[in-house]
Amino acid sequence: MKNKKHRLLKKLRRILPAEAVLGDEEQLRPYECDALSAYRRLPMIAVLPDNVAQVRAVLQLCAREQVPVVARGAGTGLSGGALPRTDGVLLVMARFNRILAVDEHNRTATVQPGVTNLAVSEAVAHLGLFYAPDPSSQLACTIGGNVAENSGGVHCLKYGLTVHNIMEVKAVTMDGTALTLGGRALDAPGFDLAALITGSEGLLGVIVEVTVKLLPQPDTARVLLAAFDQVEKAGDGVAAVIGAGIIPAGLEMMDNPAIRATEEFAGAGYPVDAEAILLCEVDGMAEEVAAQMETVDALLRQAGAVHIRAARDEHERALFWSGRKGAFPAVGRISPDYYCIDGTIPRRELGRVLRHIKKLSAEFNLRVANVFHAGDGNLHPLILYDANVPGELERTEELAAAILQHCVEVGGTITGEHGVGVEKINQMCTQFNARELAQMHAVKSAFDPGGLLNPGKAVPTLARCAEFGAMHVHHGKVAFPELERF
Amino acid sequence: MQTALADFIRETPRGREADAILRKCVHCGLCTATCPTYRLLGSELDSPRGRIYLIKQMLEGAAVGAATQLHLDRCLGCRACETTCPSGVEYGRLLESGKIVAEQNAPQRSTKARALRRLILAVVPHEKRFAFLLRIAQKLAPVLPRKLRAKIPQQRAAPAWPAPRHRRRMVVLRGCVQPAAAPAIDAAAAQLLDEHGVSLLGAGGCCGGVALHLPAAKKGLALARKTIDACWPLVEQGAEAVVVSASGCAVTVKEYAHLLRDDPAYAEKARVVSSLARDLSEVAAALNIIPAIAPRNLRVAFHSPCTLQHGQKITGVVERLLEDAGYTVAAAPNPHLCCGSAGTYSLLQPELSRQLLKNKLRDLHTAAPDLIATANIGCLLHLQSRTATPVRHWVELL
């Protein structure tokens, strides 16, 4: 192992400048995790290329040497998608941070994968355009990572996920082949492989360039904040707004612990004694927005909102959102660690699922703060724990599994936008059967027959599911009865 | 974040403080986006989150190599990350501790690097030595190479300091570099306050900031005590505030209470001085200056020093003062980013500093300003060294 590392370092230093190849433990530790810091693994080597030729050369070398490669953007992922391998190379794409072209007439921007999500919108703001998907980490997360995870965000309810907002992806496969997927037109001939690589979590190729769609900034955008004395009533409010045929630009919910934590950071004027708040944004032409605001206001009052306030101006609108966008890390103020879950449920189940989470929270004796994209039924329960207390992380993982299990039971899924990574890999066995998983592995091997790109993430091996199934017997049925037990 | 501090530090005041700060960090990475060095270098190790990790492993007992020291040295200490951080991580304080521990445990720096640091410590915090050397440099300037000449501030005449005539009095901390390099600043401040019923009295020298950040904690704290001693008689005579016109020094004086909290002889005095410490902008904003009636037809780009916006969390105050005085304050992109001056950073990390300066001036010039205003002597001299547009402390413009 040591010899192998030494040999590889020598060869990598022929491809990259010395400062771009990290091999000492001291330098590698900070790369041992992404934003899911509960899972940590020291990479064997980390490299920081700054051009595509270097990326290809690194991949070709690693393919020859049979060394696994994990790609990483800004390391803001919440499912451990960029968790390194102790026997692998971590390919850091952060230096690819240039916006290559903005095509005002076709409303596209072509960017390198390390460009941050927000930087795209900032660069085209003077043209009256913006890039719609806006994950809460948009200040720091990269477009390459967004494509790899098919990231969502507050505004996805109206404008779609990453997959709906990209035109063309350039990627390099493990053997160094350069691929161009999708195209500059809305549809490309053949299979929609750009959609396939979106959300592929770094298993198919390393993304080296992305052409994104840009949208015109809406004429007007207004947000209102509604406070409720019961979480279930807020859930009803969500159902009422969507049921009335309104598509808000964003419809977000926070429960009391989340409100308290974020208010301290953002000073957004959230009512800290409310059990839940909804943030509802509508955008479009001024008249349309005014009419919809009235309807939303009435519907939420009917649902039992005790207090409703519309942001007075653009400044206050930004302030309302700043609390929501910083909500996850703001929880760091009330708990040393948190574990973020990312499940989806049918919207009608909102109230019931939240009640169940509350019950589970008491059962496991762990606090849970809820911050989520209520409009599209994408839950983000944050389990608050203390990693310094032995056993607490394990209990947290069990609670997370129980919550996700419940999401699937009510007809939802285990991930809405954060990806599977390592975090939800066992729950994939609950979500899919063995034949479905086998097909996913077939797709993987079509791109990466050696299985060297980000192995062990996103799609569990059948053996792993068998082990997981052996531990969890649901409704008296063992999962994958056809497989041998270990 | 999970922590397991090593025995050598766990139960010390420094260790307890560091542990509390580390545990607030949830490793989300938002700080990377506004970190000037991460934006230039693209390496986790040159980001706040990476440095927090480096400090964490050091405090957890891992061997400290040259890499840890290199990446901590490259940190500007601008604290833009603190403004960005939703979790409330006090990065600045953690960095100070980290630098001190690294200084003790990392392999010795090169002879050249040590000599430079000694030279800085021997000159900069001593106003008379600095003034003497500056005068020589100004005399030699015509025969120096252009690049070096640009770094030497030109002598500018200072307005007269009004004699104390008001009952309301405030102390102004004179500082180390500023009296020699830009005496006009405090004189302008004294005039402004005098016109509004307050007499400003100069006292003290270096606040200790330069030494503290190097880090030379012992010398820094000695200078802090000296400053407290210098201000103390005036404080006892009823001075309402300890005013600091350089935002870099203001942030340090406000930290005295924290820095000297375990010093029985100075803790109380430090607490009083810190509680009286005001950035000049805070004092000016409270003066109720009557806004100018006619606009001045001058566009000013304001560079808010990191020590003003991130260190002291004062935003929008100077801009309002300038607008009230009739200037058009032109917005420039990336207002949250450091200009690369950062105390002695321009001397210790010249390449990164130059790059940041270039970017900052490019951003400021997109506003097509007639003047550039700032609030800290370090930024002022640094910006002026590479632009023909006049750079002034904002108080000189009122």
Structure description:
The complex is a heterodimer of chains A (486) and B (398). By secondary structure, chain A is of the alpha+beta class. Chain A has 4 domains: 2-92, Uridine Diphospho-n-acetylenolpyruvylglucosamine Reductase, domain 2, CATH 3.30.43; 99-216, 2-Layer Sandwich (Uridine Diphospho-n-acetylenolpyruvylglucosamine Reductase, domain 3), CATH 3.30.465.10; 220-329, Alpha-Beta Plaits; 425-471, no CATH class. Chain A is built from 17 helices and 20 strands. Chain A has helices at 2-15, 25-28, 52-65, 117-124, 143-149, 156-159, 193-197, 231-243, 256-266, 286-303, 314-325, 327-330, 350-364, 392-409, 425-431, 434-447, 462-471; strands at residues 21-22, 45-47, 69-72, 89-92, 99-103, 108-111, 129-130, 166-172, 178-182, 206-213, 215-216, 220-228, 250-255, 276-284, 307-310, 337-340, 343-344, 367-372, 378-379, 381-385. Chain A has a 7-stranded antiparallel beta sheet, with helices on both faces. Chain A has a 5-stranded antiparallel beta sheet with strand order 5-6-10-8-9. In chain A, strand 8 (166-172) and strand 9 (178-182) form a beta hairpin. Chain A starts with a helix and ends in a 15-residue tail after the last helix. The model of chain A has no long low-confidence stretch (mean pLDDT 92). Chain B contains 22 helices and 8 strands. In chain B, strands 2-1-3-4 form a 4-stranded parallel beta sheet. A 4-stranded parallel beta sheet of chain B has the order 6-5-7-8, sandwiched between helices. Chain B has helices spanning 7-10, 13-24, 36-41, 48-59, 66-73, 80-84, 91-105, 111-123, 127-140, 146-150, 178-181, 184-195, 209-213, 217-236, 247-259, 267-276, 280-285, 306-311, 317-324, 345-348, 350-365, 377-384, and strands spanning 168-173, 198-203, 242-244, 277-279, 299-302, 328-329, 371-374, 391-393. The model of chain B has no long low-confidence stretch (mean pLDDT 95). Chain B is of the alpha/beta class and 398 residues long. The longest helix of chain B has 20 residues, at 217-236. In chain B, helix 22 links the parallel strand 7 (371-374) and strand 8 (391-393). Chain B folds into 3 domains: 7-105, Alpha-helical ferredoxin (Fumarate Reductase Iron-sulfur Protein, Chain B, domain 2); 169-286; 299-397, Rossmann fold, CATH 3.40.50. Helices cover 52% and strands 8% of the residues of chain B. The A-B interface holds A 22, 24-27, 29-31, 33-35, 37-38, 48, 50, 74-76, 92, 94-95, 97, 114, 116, 118, 137, 139-141, 262, 264-266, 326-333, 336-338, 387-388 and B 1-4, 23-34, 38-39, 42-45, 49-50, 53-54, 57, 62-65, 67-68, 84-89.
